[in-house]
Amino acid sequence: MPGRTAEPIQIYQLKVTLRGAKRPIWRQFQVRGDIALGKLHRILQVVMGWTDTHLHQFTIRGKQYWIPDEGDMALRKMIDERKHRLKDVVSRKASRFTYVYDFGDLWAHELRVENILVPQAGVHYPVCLAGARACPPEDVGGMTGYETLLEVLDNANHPQHEEYLEWIGDSFDPEAFDAEAVNRKLHQLK
User: Fold this and answer.
1) Would 23 be classed as within a structural domain?
2) Is 42 among the domain residues?
3) Structure confidence by residue, pLDDT tens digits, 158-186
4) Is the pLDDT of residue 75 over 60?
5) What is d(CA 81, CA 71) in angstroms, rounded to the nearest whole number?
6) In CATH, what number is assigned to the domain containing residue 35?
7) Is 158 domain-assigned?
């Protein structure tokens, strides 16, 4: 009986963009196509800079994937993201899908499959290739709250400038993005 040949590994090059930002916030990264959506969630948390303290869900071709509990599954017909691999739910270049993080602030991300590649020797996946701008702070009040934060921080004469600066800290730079720092964190993912 002939031996089974292993399925070839595919590398998905994805671009994730945070919807609604006046100054685009995005990341370009590569992952193995055989990862579960649950691991893709953890990777997105790292590449975007979120803290994984809120619920999330993927919407792919009209189906919703997340980590449901028993009651949620029955009520909302959600699909367990831990049981579905990226390549099984998104199989073509140019495919698009949505990732929502924090149902209160409603951070909606659009993901697009830019390319499907063969793995390169010596590359540790996942890997972040590029990006622009810092992720908004957690619990800032969604995109509207973030835009308000940026306006207040940009205006030293604003009555709430000192209050916002104290809340966010003077080290927050909305233009900052460091792919090397992201990759160090990605290498620690299991």
Assistant:
1) yes
2) yes
3) 999 999 999 998 789 999 999 999 999 99
4) no
5) 16
6) 3.10.290.30
7) no
